[in-house]
Amino acid sequence: MALVEIRNVHKSFRRDAERIDVFSGLSMDIEQGSFTALMGPSGSGKSTLLNLIAGLDQPTSGTVRVGGAEVSAMTPAQLAEWRSRNVGFVFQQFNLLPVLTAFQNVELPLLLTRLSKKERDERVRIALGVVGLDDRLQHYPRQLSGGQEQRVAIARAIVADPTLVLLDEPTGQLDARSSQEVLSLLGRLNDEFNKTIIIVTHDPHAAERAKRQLHLDKGTFVEQARTAGTAAGAVG
């Protein structure tokens, strides 16, 4: 069953008088419960696609559906409410607030909900426990390693129990050991908690941990055959 459905999406930007076309009729599906790595050269549109799926950006034309909801047709207010319930996003730079503890950073998305303080506290503790940081609740970002900061960012992304978790270069700022810890955590979220995960990455080791690898080049997806190691053709 497809959780993400992208149909005939065009996306262009204006740079002064020049129009830059990122996608020209892109179509693809992401299955529910899958773990997908999006790969491709810099400037190929990987992060743009992630933003379109999350509703952080809008297509020039075409449709983006997630869980049956047409994200590309929502108003900003509708998008904000929809994202808070359905999507967890982990940014490349972590985006943790330095003046807040790990607990407070993870709690932030829940402040927009109607949950009681007791319910928020329970969810935050569960999320930090899942990422192995239940002993770092009161630590500030400056007191954490890069890998621990990334895990706090992941805890914040999953605290509202979203169906879809999106990560932009989740290992880009990490050393090899921290990268492996984060990738193992993502595998566990996918296997044990059935989270649908999409990562954008340049790291082949990170992509190997995904169950599906998609290569984006010049606005077109080519699926990488896991066994043969050759292109399997355009997706969608």
Describe the structure.
It is a single chain. The chain has 236 residues and is of the alpha/beta class. A hairpin with a 2-residue loop joins strand 4 (61-66) and strand 5. The protein has helices spanning 46-54, 76-86, 102-107, 117-130, 146-158, 176-193, 204-209; strands at residues 2-15, 18-31, 35-39, 61-66, 69-70, 87-90, 164-168, 196-200, 212-217, 220-224, 231-234. The strands form 2 sheets. Strands 6-7-8-3-9-10-11 form a 7-stranded mixed sheet, with helices on both faces. The protein has a 4-stranded antiparallel sheet with strand order 2-1-4-5, covered by helices on one side. The model is unreliable at 225-236 (pLDDT under 50). 33% of the residues lie in helices and 30% in strands. The protein has 7 helices and 11 strands.
